[in-house]
C-alpha cells in the first residue's frame, strides 16, 4: 500500500464525488468543487501514468499516457453526442482537430521552447520524429481533410463505406507506427545526447544530472496502474457532469460551439502537456516529442474508428471535414513541422513559431 499523499487520495476522492453527483443536477458551488477535483484527478493521472511509463521504459512509456488520454477523449465525445441537446454533429471533428493543433503546436512548441531556453538547443532524433509527423499528417488528411472534398454525400461528411475505409486505414497506420516505435525501430524514438547520438543501452537518461529516480518496483507500478484507471474513470465521469456548464458558458459569452471541442481537448491533453514539459526540462526532448506527436496520432487513429462504430447508433450526420480556415492552419502546421523536424535540433525560435500557430488556432476558433 503506497503512502498517503495527494496523488493517492485524489483518485479516491474523485471517485466518491462522482458517485455522489452522478445522475443529479448539482448547484454552482458543487460544480465548482467538481471542477477543482477534476483538475486534481487529471494531475493524479499524470503522476501515475509517469510511474507506469518509467517502469516500462521508453518509447513504450510514451504510449501509456497517449492511450490513456485517448480513452478520456473518446468517452467524452460519445457521451456528449448522446446526451447533448445542441447540435453535436461536428463535435468529434472539432475535438480531434483541436487535439491535433494542441499537440503539434502547443505541446511541441512548449517542449522545444523550454528545452532550448534551458539547454541552448533542443536535440532529438529526426528519423523517429519525422516518421511520427508523416503518420499524423496522413491520418489528418484522410480523416479530416478529404471529407470536405468528396462528392458522394452532401456536406463535409463521409458515406458509410468511406467512413469504414477511413476507420480501418487509421487503425492500420496507428498499428504500424506502434510496431515501428516499440519493436522494429525502437532506437529511433529513444532520447539522444547533446551531440544527437542515441544513448547507449543501459546509459542513464539523465543528461542534466538531476538524480532522476530508478524505475519503480512491481508493487509500486501495480498500485499506480490501478490508481491511474480510477483517475481516468473519475475524469471521464466528472467531465461529463461539468460539460453542460461548459456548453452553457460557451453559449452565454457568444463563442462558437467549436470552442467546446477545444475545451475538451485542452482538458484531456493536460496530462501529456505536463509530462512533455517535464521531460523537456530534463533535456529528454525526444520523450516530449513522442508524447506530442503520439497524442495527435492516437487522437485521430483511435478516436475516429471508435466514433465510426458509435455512429451506427448515433442519430444525425457525422461531420468530419474541416472548413477552409482549419485546412489552412493544418497545412501551415504540417509545413512548419517539417522544417522543425528535418534538422534534428531546434532553437527557441522554432518553439515560438509553433506556439504562435497554436495561439492563432485558438483565436480563430473563438473569433472565426
UniProtKB/TrEMBL annotation:
Subcellular location, record wording: Membrane
Pfam hit, one: Na_Ca_ex
Superkingdom in the source lineage: Bacteria
Membrane topology label: Multi-pass membrane protein
Main location: membrane
Keywords, in A-Z order: Membrane, Transmembrane, Transmembrane helix
Any one GO molecular-function label of the UniProt entry: sodium:proton antiporter activity
One GO CC term, this protein: plasma membrane
Protein name (Swiss-Prot/TrEMBL): Ionic transporter y4hA
Species this protein is from: Nocardioides piscis
Amino acid at each position: 500500500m503506497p503512502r498517503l499523499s495527494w496523488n493517492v487520495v485524489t483518485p479516491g476522492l474523485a471517485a466518491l464525488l462522482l458517485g455522489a453527483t452522478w445522475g443529479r443536477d448539482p448547484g454552482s458551488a458543487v460544480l465548482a468543487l467538481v471542477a477543482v477535483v477534476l483538475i486534481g484527478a487529471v494531475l493524479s493521472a499524470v503522476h501515475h501514468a509517469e510511474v507506469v511509463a518509467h517502469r516500462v521504459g521508453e518509447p513504450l512509456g510514451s504510449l501509456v499516457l497517449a492511450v490513456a488520454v485517448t480513452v478520456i477523449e473518446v468517452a467524452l465525445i460519445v457521451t456528449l453526442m448522446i446526451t447533448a441537446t445542441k447540435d453535436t454533429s461536428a463535435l468529434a471533428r472539432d475535438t480531434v482537430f483541436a487535439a491535433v493543433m494542441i499537440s503539434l503546436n502547443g505541446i511541441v512548441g512548449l517542449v522545444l521552447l523550454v528545452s532550448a531556453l534551458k539547454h541552448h538547443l533542443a536535440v532529438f532524433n529526426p528519423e523517429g520524429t519525422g516518421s511520427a509527423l508523416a503518420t499524423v499528417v496522413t491520418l489528418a488528411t484522410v480523416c479530416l481533410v478529404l471529407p470536405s472534398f468528396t462528392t458522394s454525400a452532401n456536406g463535409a461528411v463521409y458515406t458509410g463505406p468511406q467512413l469504414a475505409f477511413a476507420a480501418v486505414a487509421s487503425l492500420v497506420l496507428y498499428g504500424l507506427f506502434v510496431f515501428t516505435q516499440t519493436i522494429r525501430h525502437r532506437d529511433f524514438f529513444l532520447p539522444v545526447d547533446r551531440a544527437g547520438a542515441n544513448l547507449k543501452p543501459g546509459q542513464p537518461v539523465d543528461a542534466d544530472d538531476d538524480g532522476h529516480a530508478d524505475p519503480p518496483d512491481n508493487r509500486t507500478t501495480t498500485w499506480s496502474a490501478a490508481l491511474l484507471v480510477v483517475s481516468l474513470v473519475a475524469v471521464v465521469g466528472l467531465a461529463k457532469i461539468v460539460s453542460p456548464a461548459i456548453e452553457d458558458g460557451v453559449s452565454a459569452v457568444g463563442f462558437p460551439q467549436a470552442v467546446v471541442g477545444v475545451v475538451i481537448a485542452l482538458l484531456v491533453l493536460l496530462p501529456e502537456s505536463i509530462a512533455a514539459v517535464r521531460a523537456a526540462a530534463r533535456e529528454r526532448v525526444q520523450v516530449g516529442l513522442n508524447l506530442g506527436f503520439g497524442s495527435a496520432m492516437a487522437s485521430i487513429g483511435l478516436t475516429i474508428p471508435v466514433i465510426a462504430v458509435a455512429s451506427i447508433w448515433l442519430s444525425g450526420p457525422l461531420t468530419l471535414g474541416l472548413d477552409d480556415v482549419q485546412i489552412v492552419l493544418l497545412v501551415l502546421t504540417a509545413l512548419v513541422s517539417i522544417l522543425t523536424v528535418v534538422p534534428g535540433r531546434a532553437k527557441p525560435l522554432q518553439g515560438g513559431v509553433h506556439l504562435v500557430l497554436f495561439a492563432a488556432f485558438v483565436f480563430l476558433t473563438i473569433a472565426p
